[in-house]
Structures are given as C-alpha cells and as structure tokens.
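From the thread on structure requests for the teaching lab: each student submitted one protein with a one-line request. Submission from student K.M.:

"Model 3-oxoacyl-[acyl-carrier-protein] synthase 1 from Flagellimonas aquimarina, tokens only."
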Amino acid sequence: MKTRVVVTGMGVCAPNGISLSEFAASLKNGVSGIRFHPELEKLKFGCQIAGKPQIDDVDLNEYFSKIQLKGLNASGVFYGVIAGKDAWKDAGLASTSNETPDWDSGIIFGTGILGVDKFREAIYQVDAGNVRRLGSTSVIQTMASGISAYLGGMLGCGNQVTTNSSACTTGTEAILMGYDRIKNKKAKRMLVGSCSDSGPYVWGGFDAMRILPRNYNNKPGAASRPMSASAAGFVPGSGAGAMVLESLESALERGATIYGEIIGGDVNSGGQMGGGSMTAPNGEAVQRCITNAIQDSGIDPKDIDAVNGHLTATAKDPNEISNWSQALGRFGIDFPFVNSFKALFGHCLAAAGSIECVGTLLQFRENQIFGSINCEDIHPEIISMIDASKIPQATIEFEPKIIAKASFGFGDVNACIIFKAYSQKQP
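Reply posted by the TA:
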C-alpha cells in the first residue's frame, strides 16, 4: 500500500499577512502587501517597491529565546522560524520536552541567500580588524542551513534536518523532498518550507538586470501584473511559508486537522538547452515536469480543477500558459482555472513556492479560487490559448478537488506538485 501523505499544519510570514488567518483574508479580498520603500529610493534603485513581511508588531520572544535573539540580524531566519513554528503549532505538535530527540520528525527548509545583512556586518568588522566582535552566532546566521538548524533545535527533531536551495523552485522542491521521505517510510512527519531574506543586498542584482518594474513607485499595489499585457517585470518579495507533512496513518492516530493531500509531483531541469538558459526555462522540460507530476499522481489531466502558476509578471507568462496548455492537452474553455498570487506580494524568490503552496491549499479550506488582481488587460497571447473566464480577477466560489502548483527557477530548474482535497478514499 502506498503511504498517503497529508498536510496537517501550515504557517506563513508573507508581505500581506503573518498569521494564516490574515494571509487567507488578504488572498480572498485581493489585499496587496507590496509597498514603497524609502530605503530603495535613497539607494537610487529603479524599482523602489517590494513585498516585505511586516513583523514589527510580532513578539519575537514567542519564537526565540533571549539568547537566540542576541545579535540576531538575519531577516530570513526571523521569517522562517515564525512560519515554521506556527505550522508546527497549527499541526497540534509541540517541541520534545525531554532529552530524547523526536526520531520520527524531520525538517527540510530551503533558502537562497540567508543572513546577508549579518554577512555585511561581518565583512565590515573583519575589514576593520575587529574579528573578535563578530559574535558567536555569525556563522549560523549566514550558513544556508542556519534556518533548518534553528528550527531543528527549537523543535527537537531527530530525523533528517537539512536545507535545499534551487533558486525560485526551492520551496516547492522542499515540499516534494519531504513528501518523498514520508512516502518511503523514512519519517512520520516533516516540517517543510523555505524562506528568503529582505533588503537591497538581495534585490539589488535584479534591479541591475532591469527586470523589475520602474514605473509603479507611486502606485505599488498595481505593480505586480501576472498574465497582463502591461506587465513590466516582477516585484521583489521576501518571507517564508511552511507546512507539516505527515503520513495519513500518523495524522489519523493524532486526530489532526487535514488541509489536503499530496498525491504526486516531479522535479527536473532543462539543462539550459533547447531554449533554456540560466534565466529562461526550457519549454520541453517544463512540460515534462508537469506531465510526470500528473503521471506520478495517477490522475488524468482533465481531473485538475485549478493551476497556481509560477507566473512572475514578465514576458515569459504567455510561454508558461502555453506550456501548461500543451502539457495538459487543454485549451480554451476546457483549461482549468489559473491564478498567480505574486500579484499580491511579489516574487518572494526562494520563499515563493512555499508561500504560494500555503495559499494553494487554503483554497480547499475556503472552497474558493482566489482571484488574480492587476490582469484586467489579459495578455492577448494568453487569450488566444485559454478562455478569459478561466483567469478569475476576483475570488470565486468553487470547490476544487485537485490543484496543480509549479515553480520554475534560475538555472532552468522546475518543480510541480499535485494537491488533492482530502477524502478517506484512496486517491
């Protein structure tokens, strides 16, 4: 019998919501978390807007000890711990209270750049000959696996505790890695997710590439325009998303709430060939990733009710819709509903997949498809492939049974995951 893997807890630290309830309300009501940042204006960025979680009102003492907070200067760590611990709590789990690790629980929590502000601080201290002033936490704050190390110690997990990194595919890939571990009976539950730092040292490279919108600094809420003819580039974002994955058997034993089920997925690469490059996807690889995920799930492409795309608000959006359409063999009015949450909080880079997967699953709970704002002028190439009614611009009432979610990242890497509304019957 195949081990069924379900989602029993979720947490999020997003530009448009910290708690799960706030995040859900923002997605339902089209509330944007993209804001103007005077710091970026001062540094002469072309794009002076971004999506950044508003954690000033969060009591960090609920998430960190006083010792852990001392000298902590890594926004990604803050976001990841908030989302991760909230997901753990939401699942009805507690950190181990004795000296024995929880051998059945592990963590796969990805990131791209972690602790960049701490690293900058360290560089200045070293260059000034003040090595002894770096502090004892500079290493853990700047190593990529710092986020999983923090969470692993806080929760007492004794199974695999690690960090993955695959650019914008990171979060979705982390979920699939945790899914595989439980499916193969190597763990009962896994905390999975990803985080991304905020700030000019993370976003500056993209501004230099001139792939961020420069004409919306005075109207940030309208800047991120996935699937729109007037899309002018992606808005940089940051934050974290987290899920607790668990074997169905374990979840039922605990009487846990079940948000949904993972029934399959796939990861691959286009090899930066066939039209693929460091920054552009190989269309054939994207289609293969989607097709393989569907085959792994044991479903028919026509079973998919909705797609939450990568859809970053660049010139590549029509290409992505074309790849979905070709892979699913569905066109026009037959195409599933499709949306992109990046219109509400920007492209959260390494955190994008995990935050968007949390939003995707919330659609099962709410019996809705959340709307995609800022695409009132749908790109004509997209309209030539699918019916405009399949791109809801406001939240609609609908009971999805199966939703496909995909992420595509720099380096021509892809991940696609298939979520299913939970039922006691086998998928």
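TA comment: The chain has a mean pLDDT of 95. The chain has 15 helices and 14 strands.
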